[in-house]
Design goal:
Elements lengths: L3 E2 L3 H11 L5 E2 L7 H6 L3 E5 L4 E7 L2 E8 L14 E7 L7 H9 L3 E12 L12 E5 L3 H13 L14 H6 L3 E6 L5 E10 L2 E9 L8 H12 L7 E7 L3 H10 L2 E11 L1
Parallel strand pairs: 5-6, 11-12
Antiparallel strand pairs: 1-3, 2-5, 3-4, 4-5, 6-13, 7-12, 7-13, 8-9, 9-10, 10-11
Length: 269
């Protein structure tokens, strides 16, 4: 199967208008970034009579988006490799079973589920004092690199939000990375990457080294992130967590975060 590069925004709009249907299924969230992707030569297409598939070139493969109108079709994806597709759904009642079955029959396999959690400061438990761990913003590019390597190593290379080295300086300038150290020997224990959607403070990545587990390092990182970004009692915080990561889910729930009934399931090939 040949991937065809999309060279103009007009072609992308044409695909959307031709294949978008109330009776079909779609995970195309590209509208805001389509033109940038096209200008960078990163957006490709494979279309047939009823279905359209869009591919975004990433550092570690492709991310696929689709418009499926004929679930009985079986496109030839045999030569596709290193591709991830992610489907957003609203709680268990809207689990995208038909889309998953379609993708499985063309060679994809289910990877993982992520759930979105939201917290409001007034509803969250106050910080717990943990001895032996200190948390500060990353002070130099070496700490940024160490944190990002830990993030990148903590999830699979296709479905994770991979951080490339050309982002390091911006992360340092923006105070986007919190670093956890052992108070006694300054050993690196873990890190948290914070971003913002409007005024909502978001956790984009959080990870702890194996030797730091059991010391509540994740809890200290979470508490520091929350308290540092608190503007008022109604301040909001958001994160996505792997459904399978029961330890992390339990930590967020005990803190007071609530499931928003928004989840994604990823499939890879």
């Amino acid at each position: 199967m040949m991937l065809n590069k999309i060279n103009t925004i007009e072609r992308y709009v044409e695909i959307v208008e031709q294949y978008r249907s109330k009776e079909g299924a779609s995970n195309d969230y590209l509208q805001r970034e389509a033109e940038t992707l096209i200008n960078n030569g990163e957006l490709f297409e494979v279309c047939d009579r009823h279905n359209a598939f869009l591919f975004v070139k990433k550092n570690t493969g492709f991310r696929m988006y689709y418009y499926i109108n004929d679930f009985n079709a079986k496109p030839d994806f045999n030569e596709l490799k290193d591709v991830v597709v992610e489907i957003l759904y609203r709680g268990k009642s809207y689990f995208p079973q038909e889309e998953i079955e379609f993708l499985e029959k063309v060679g994809f396999r289910v990877n993982l589920i992520r759930d979105q959690y939201l917290g409001v400061y007034k509803d969250l438990e106050r910080p717990i004092k943990i001895e032996g761990v200190k948390v500060e913003f990353a002070k130099n590019l070496w700490e940024i690199e160490k944190a990002c390597k830990l993030f990148n190593d903590s999830f699979d290379i296709l479905s994770g939000d991979y951080i490339t080295s050309d982002m390091y300086e911006k992360l340092l300038i923006n105070n986007a990375i919190w670093i956890a150290h052992d108070i006694d020997n300054d050993e690196f224990l873990g890190a948290l990457h914070q971003t913002f959607i409007g005024k909502t403070a978001c956790i984009s990545h959080v990870a702890v080294i194996p030797e730091g587990r059991g010391r509540h390092v994740g809890q200290v990182l979470l508490d520091t992130f929350i308290e540092n970004n608190m503007e008022n009692e109604k301040h909001r915080y958001m994160l996505w967590v792997q459904h399978q990561n029961t330890v992390a889910v339990s930590m967020y729930q005990k803190k007071g975060f609530k499931y928003t009934f928004k989840s994604t399931i990823s499939l890879i090939k």
